[in-house]
């Protein structure tokens, strides 16, 4: 979305949950009236202003969308399809067979 001009990088904020208890920054991205964060790359630290601590006053607008609708929208936009789990085939359940004690298998 950034490359298409549909979103723009606003600045850097300190991460709320830094890895390994170290200070870490995230890039704040704005698209329309929504903001979200992504991991920064090296040039972001030179080109974007650091905005300090993340404000608790800023919230994204509420939206209602089912998970299926959201997945379908993302798949149409990105062109990526969900991979089917090869291990999740409909297997029939087989009851375990217990042999009396002392019998060999």
Brief account:
With 105 residues, the chain is α+β, with helices and mostly antiparallel strands. Helices cover 17% and strands 18% of the residues. It starts with 7 loop residues before the first strand and ends in a 27-residue tail after the last helix.
Structural commentary:
There is one protein chain. The protein has two helices and three strands; from the N terminus they run βββαα. The chain has helices at 42-47, 67-78; strands at 8-14, 25-31, 34-38. The protein has 105 residues and is an alpha+beta fold. A hairpin with a 2-residue loop joins strand 2 (25-31) and strand 3 (34-38). A three-stranded antiparallel β-sheet has the order 1-2-3, with no helix packed on it.
Write the layout of secondary structure elements.
Layout: E1 8-14, E2 25-31, E3 34-38, H1 42-47, H2 67-78
Antiparallel strand pairs: 1-2, 2-3
Query: How do the SSEs run, as a string of H and E?
Result: EEEHH
Helix count, DSSP H or I runs of 4 or more residues: 2
**What is the first-to-last residue Cα distance?**
61 Å
What is the total tally of β strands? 3
Indicate the mean pLDDT.
Answer: 81
Largest sheet: 3 strands, antiparallel
Q: Quick one: overall form?
A: elongated
Rounded radius of gyration (Å):
24 Å
How does the helix and strand content classify structurally? alpha+beta
Low-confidence stretches: none
Instruction: Give the percentage of residues in beta strands.
Output: 15-25%
Helix content: 10-25%
């Amino acid at each position: 979305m950034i490359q298409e001009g549909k979103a723009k990088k606003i600045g850097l904020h300190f991460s709320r949950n830094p890895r390994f208890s170290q200070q870490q920054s995230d890039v704040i991205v704005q698209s329309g009236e929504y903001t979200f964060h992504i991991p920064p790359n090296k040039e972001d630290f030179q080109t974007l202003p650091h905005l300090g601590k993340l404000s608790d006053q800023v919230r994204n607008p509420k939206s209602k969308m089912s998970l299926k609708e959201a997945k379908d929208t993302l798949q149409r936009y990105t062109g990526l399809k969900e991979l089917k789990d090869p291990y999740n085939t409909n297997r029939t359940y087989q009851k375990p067979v217990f042999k009396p004690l002392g019998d060999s298998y």
